[in-house]
Amino acid sequence: MSSSRFSRRTFASVAAGALLEGTQLAGCAKPVDPNDIGPKPPDLSSEDWGEVRAKYSNLLRVYGERLTADEKRHSLSVLIRHQHMLTSIRSFVVQNDNASACTLRLYGAEHI
Q1: What is the DSSP letter of 95?
Q2: Domain ranges, ordered by start, for the chain
Q3: How far is residue 56's CA from residue 58's CA, in Å, rounded to a whole number?
Q4: Would you say 55 and 79 are in contact if contact means Cβ atoms under 8 Å apart?
Q5: Which of 9, 76, 80, 93 has the fewest other C-beta atoms within 10 Å?
C-alpha cells in the first residue's frame, strides 16, 4: 500500500472528527419556533394550521438563514394559500374504483 492512501483507521478518525464538528455547528443554530408566525387564519382548521406551521418550520430549517424577512412573510402566505387549495382538493369525494389520471394501466394482449 502506498503512503498516499488512507488507512481504515485514518479514514474513521477523519470521519468521526467531521461528524463531531457538524454536530457542534448544528447545536449553535437558533431553533425555529413555528408558533411565532402569527395567529391562525379563521378559515383554516387547527389541523390545516398545524400542517402550515410544520411546513414553515421545515422551510426555515432548510433555508432560514438565506431568506430575508420579506421572503419569509411571502413564503408563509404561499403556504397558507396552498393549504386552502389542499383543503378543497381533499374534500372531494373519490370512489374506490376511480383511479387517478396518472395511474399506469396495464392491459393484456386481448385488449390490444
Answers
A1: -
A2: 30-91
A3: 5
A4: yes
A5: 93
